[in-house]
Design brief:
By secondary structure, this protein is mainly α. It has six helices and no strands. The protein is globular, with a radius of gyration of 19 Å. The N and C termini lie far apart (49 Å).
C-alpha cells in the first residue's frame, strides 16, 4: 500500500520536477535587464548609446541588430562563454553575480526569437 501511494505521488509530482529545471525566458529578461541591458540595450539616450550597444552597432553596420535581445543568431554556448569570460572591455560575470540557472534563463530569453 505504501509503495502504491509513493508511485501515485511520484506520478503527480514528476511533471513539476521536469519543469523545475526548465529555463524561464521571462525570468531571463528580468536578469538581462538587471545585469546586461545597461550596456547592451539601446536605453542610454540621456548620455548616448551604451558602450556595448555602440560597439556592436559599429561592428555589424546594420547586418545584425546591435540590440542583443533582437538577435536570432546567438547560440547558447556563445552567450554563456561571453557572460562567464567577458570580451574586450566586457567584464567576466561570476556565478555569485549570475548563477548558472539565471544564465540558462538569459539564454532562453535571448534565444526566444531564434527560428
Amino acid at each position: 500500500m505504501k509503495s502504491l501511494a509513493t508511485a501515485a505521488l511520484l506520478t503527480l509530482v514528476q511533471p513539476m520536477l521536469n519543469c523545475a529545471g526548465a529555463a524561464d525566458a521571462e525570468h531571463g529578461k528580468r536578469v538581462y535587464e538587471l545585469w546586461c541591458a545597461d550596456c547592451h540595450a539601446p536605453t542610454g539616450e540621456r548620455y548616448g548609446l551604451p558602450a556595448g550597444f555602440n560597439v556592436l552597432q559599429r561592428r555589424y553596420s546594420g547586418s545584425l541588430p546591435a540590440d542583443l535581445s533582437q538577435r536570432t543568431d546567438l547560440t547558447a554556448a556563445t552567450i554563456k562563454t561571453r557572460v562567464r569570460n567577458g570580451l574586450n572591455v566586457m567584464p567576466r560575470t561570476r556565478k555569485t553575480e549570475i548563477s548558472d540557472a539565471e544564465l540558462d534563463d538569459i539564454v532562453a530569453y535571448l534565444r526566444r526569437n531564434n527560428p
